[in-house]
Design brief:
Structural class: alpha/beta
Strand order of the largest sheet: 3-2-1-4-7-6-8-5
Helix content: 40-55%
Radius of gyration: 20 Å
Strand content: 5-15%
Number of helices: 16
Order of helices and strands: EHEHEHEEHEHHEHHEHHHHHHHH
Oligomer: single chain
Shape: globular
Number of strands: 8
Length: about 350
């Protein structure tokens, strides 16, 4: 199976070499032939020069493209289109092409591409998702932050929907056959009423594919990756509160205005000492919204009889969330995401008390 990794790049000169190198190390394993398509999205820090240097060191293994339209979707969509063109030139059928979505600030474990390719060969009509791990160096240097995350998450995880009902897909560690991508309609853009681009593009594509084609998600645990924690250092409070989930720009700007800068370790210590109540509550609410209420909305839209829908808090949330139906949500999956995240601000009572520790 031809394996093509699509990697958007925007000012990634310091990290892209390690990311690409980690993907190319699987070349030749079990017949896995990985090609990386790096799509520059307007870098001004010398990223293109670094990519050119990598290309010289790995002839035929890295293809460099440019996409002038900024955003999350345009470079990924451009990369998949190039993958389709490449497959055509090589005489490879679309069903025999595996597209890996990759990020330029993520290092992939040895055997990542091979594990994904092996999993793809065993199933069609699915989205594959690898696993995310914190970089070992970050865990060693900032154990308090890791403990703060785990403290909140451990209290919420028992409430999350069953794994088979989860609909959130991590953009940087997922994969699909090119033929399936085409059948599902590919990645697409959506905007909020405020004009903000809605991100989580692969989650939205998966929701559409699930509602229209009954697509499921398959976890490929051997396929692991270590994403950069630079967003944590940029704003520890915000990243902690949102789980790193890409919220709408207007919402994020409003929240950040109320928070003064605070270092990673100082913030984590405050959480563990019982402070930072807003960040802690927002983290818990995002976990519930995305991994409990969002799956329930999709289950409800498909008239699936699931125990989750009978839980009192879920039933209460569904009475507030508009009943849009599978047809509308398949056409505009962002509505489901905006509906559940909107509850955090409009109906905080639906999330109940947050017990931590």
């Amino acid at each position: 199976m031809l394996t093509v990794a699509v990697m958007p790049c925007l000012n990634e000169a310091d990290v892209v070499r390690d990311a690409i190198g980690s993907l190319l190390q699987s070349f030749g394993e079990d017949g896995c032939e990985t090609i990386v398509i790096a799509v520059d999205n307007g870098s001004s820090d010398g990223t293109l020069d670094v990519l050119a240097d990598i290309s010289r060191s790995h002839p035929g293994r890295l293809r460099i493209e440019e996409e002038s339209e900024r955003g999350y979707v345009p470079p990924r969509r451009r990369g998949v289109a190039v993958a389709a063109q490449l497959a055509s030139e090589m005489g490879v059928a679309e069903r025999d092409v595996l597209v890996l979505q990759a990020d330029a600030d993520t290092v992939y474990r040895a055997g990542y591409a091979t594990a994904m390719s092996r999993a793809a060969s065993q199933a069609e009509g699915v989205i594959l998702e690898g696993s995310i791990r914190r970089p070992p160096a970050f865990e060693l240097e900032h154990p308090l932050y890791v403990e703060a995350e785990r403290t909140v998450d451990a209290a919420i995880e028992p409430l999350e929907a069953a794994d088979e009902d989860d609909v959130v897909v991590d953009d940087k560690v997922c994969a699909y056959r090119l033929s399936d991508y085409m059948a599902w309609g590919g990645l697409f853009e959506e905007w909020s009423d405020a004009g903000d681009a809605i991100h989580a593009e692969t989650t939205r594509m998966f929701v559409r594919a699930r509602l229209r084609h009954g697509v499921s998600k398959v976890r490929v645990n051997p396929a692991g990756a270590f994403p950069s924690r630079r967003r944590v250092f940029e704003n520890a409070r915000y990243h902690f509160a949102t789980l790193g989930f890409p919220r709408e720009r207007t919402w994020g700007d409003r929240l950040k205005r109320g928070w003064s800068p605070l270092g990673v370790d100082a913030f984590a210590r405050a959480v563990l000492d019982g402070g930072e109540e807003m960040a802690v509550r927002l983290r818990a609410c995002h976990l519930l919204a995305l991994f409990r209420f969002l799956p329930a909305v999709i289950l409800d839209a498909t008239a699936t009889d699931a125990p989750l829908l009978n839980e009192p808090d879920v039933a209460a949330a569904l009475t507030v969330i508009p009943r849009r139906g599978a047809t509308i949500l398949a056409e505009q999956p962002a509505l489901a995401i905006l509906d559940v995240l909107g509850l955090i601000d409009t109906r905080p009572d639906l999330f109940g008390p947050v017990a931590v520790g």
